Amino acid sequence: MSFRRFTIAAACLAALTAPALAETTVTVLHVSENADQKAVWDKIASDYNAEHKGVKVQFKYLENEAFKAKLPTMLQSSDRPDLFYSWSGGVMQAQDKAGFLKDITADVASVESAMSPTAVDAFKVDGKVVGVPFEVGEVAFYYNKKLFEKAGVKAEDIKTWDDFLGAVKKLKAAGITPIVVGAGEKWPMHFYYSYLVMRIGGEHALADAKAGKDGGFKNATFVEAGKRLRELAALEPFQPGYLSTSHTQSSGFFGDGKAAMDLMGQWFIGMQGPNSASGKGVPEDDIGILSFPIIPGGKGKATDTLGGVNGWLVTKTAPPEAVDFLKFFSQPKYAQEAAAHGGYIPVVKGAEAYITDPLVKRLAADLAVTTYHQNFFDQDLGPSVGRVVNDVSVSVAAGEMTPEAAAAAIQDAAEQQ
């Protein structure tokens, strides 16, 4: 073959293989264990791939703790994901400050108008958009109706903290473990501390502490929250070995019918069954939802809610296709499908009308009338202070740290941030 013919043949071969070589892969890293939710996401990716030849969107899963541990290193490497799951808040702000996130303000304006303004604002840093929300949620008590009935506990009678402690005592007297918690991962325990701060200090408690008012995190509200948490833990309401139990294990413990309550986010609905010994868990008809009780004399309301606004952040090196996929993902039809089948509450306006799961409907109803919605403390406060909040919540519950020392530790971390 002559050199000229060889070069022509090589050029033709290159032209034929170019589309395969030029395929763009968009990786989306998440922590969801909800099988229904993942099925919806996989369908969206499949639809997008079918409509966009040369692009392949891949959802990749990392267990929650592994995600938090590995993500900082991944973001500094060339192997970083293009899109990744976020709870927004201070952790997101720290990621942006470190230069890991892309400004997509001009790119996603067209989909933001269909979303809750509060959710959209949660993914802004200094006015610029760095991500797109998809879900809003609430932390609440999930309870086993049959175990409550066995112990003579009526959920509708639990309004105040004393009512709640009384229910715990009744459950223990009936030989039932009142509460399951995955304190081995620490953050599940911080839900108690967070809600107690909210119920005692009201909607301005966290913002005032961050601003350094009245001693910052050392003020009376945070100390009192620690005392109430210790008051609960002194009743020994948690399952044996709770200090080393993972979140996954704790959800399975509830699913096995071995505990009456779990204070957890909405993802619990899709976890308790698969992580139980039977793989089925407690039937949803036998699960109820109970709002965190009020503290008499406290500034917080029963309708003040704790929970995340979750979404996708875009890394600085993500290709244009990643942002294009986010816009595709955010279409109302997919939000409606997620509401109907995915076990979560989309941020797209009107999607809540498509929710069919009774438990998710209850959460959506709570959020529809919330008087104040607070992001998870450990996410709101950023990685360094948030980690201390998680640590001290467990230490106070275990009796290893006084409420005063716990509050001081948070303030020290805030001052060093």
Short overview:
The protein has helices at 3-21, 35-51, 64-75, 89-97, 109-112, 117-121, 145-151, 161-173, 187-201, 205-210, 220-233, 247-255, 320-329, 332-341, 358-368, 377-380, 382-397, 403-416, and strands at residues 24-30, 55-61, 83-86, 124-125, 128-129, 131-136, 140-144, 261-264, 287-290, 304-306, 309-314, 345-346, 372-374. It is of the alpha/beta class.
Looking at this protein, list some descriptive labels.
globular; 417 residues; D-Maltodextrin-Binding Protein, domain 2; 2 domains; disordered N terminus; 3-stranded antiparallel sheet; 6-stranded mixed sheet
Class of the largest domain, according to the CATH hierarchy?
Answer: Alpha Beta
Just name the CATH architecture of the largest domain: 3-Layer(aba) Sandwich
Care to count the β-strands? 13
Quaternary state of the chains: single chain
Question: Would you give the CATH topology of the largest domain?
Answer: D-Maltodextrin-Binding Protein, domain 2
Class inferred from helices and paired strands: alpha/beta
Report the β-strand fraction as a percent range: 5-15%
Overall pLDDT, averaged? 93
Counting structural domains, the number is 2
**Low-confidence stretches at least 5 residues in length (pLDDT < 50)?**
1-21
Going by CATH, the homologous superfamily of the largest domain would be Periplasmic binding protein-like II
| Spatial sequence of strands, sheet with the most strands | 2-1-3-11-6-12
Choose one word for the global shape: globular
- Distance N to C terminus: 69 Å
Query: Major beta sheet, specifics?
Result: 6 strands, mixed
Rg, Cα atoms, Å: 23 Å
Helicity, as a percent range: 40-55%
